[in-house]
Amino acid sequence: MQQVALQWGVNGLVAGVDEAGRGPLAGPVMAAAVILDDLHPIAGLADSKQLSALKRERLFDEIRAKALCFAVAQASVEEIDQLNILQATLLAMRRAVNGLRLAPKLVLVDGNRLPVLPMRAQAIVKGDALIAAISAASILAKVSRDRWCDEVATAYPAYGFAQHKGYGTAQHLAALQSAGASPLHRKTFAPVRAVLASALGAADLQVVSGSTTVACVKNPPPLALL
To answer: Largest Cα–Cα distance in the chain?
Structure first.
């Protein structure tokens, strides 16, 4: 899909915003905000999902070098479980925009929902393929989250985060069943919730069995019934 220039009738800086990590079963959701420099265009910007990992890494460095400013922010696993993934994503987006060194006049956000912002904002469906600044934000967010997964993979080797990046692949689901949920997992996501419920059910069964045994000892039936 070819990117297009949209005329918004706004004089001032324009920031693009996108997220990465809404779908995975573990880890934070990342968001990035980018204000590009028209005097230093970046070739090859596109939806990060359509780019190879090598191309994303190259563009990641180029965006950071050429953009007027950028910011990457996140919402934690705890915030995702408390707020839900949509609200946590919007929170991460708001943090990214607030983290910009320069204040944009207009914010263009990928998708159909907007975070609460103090400036004008516009949601654009498939904006990461249409608007260069959103494409740049999608790349920064995606690479940042992938790097986070690579880092935690060494601390939690049983799950294979470096391979599946937290998504619910067969490998990841099998690891959840065998190793249980880690502190990095989103407890409100169905596969993780099912594993936790199964573990809790097994623990409750053990407690109930122990309690039943003790109760029989402490409360024997009346002698007349023996």
So the answer is: 97
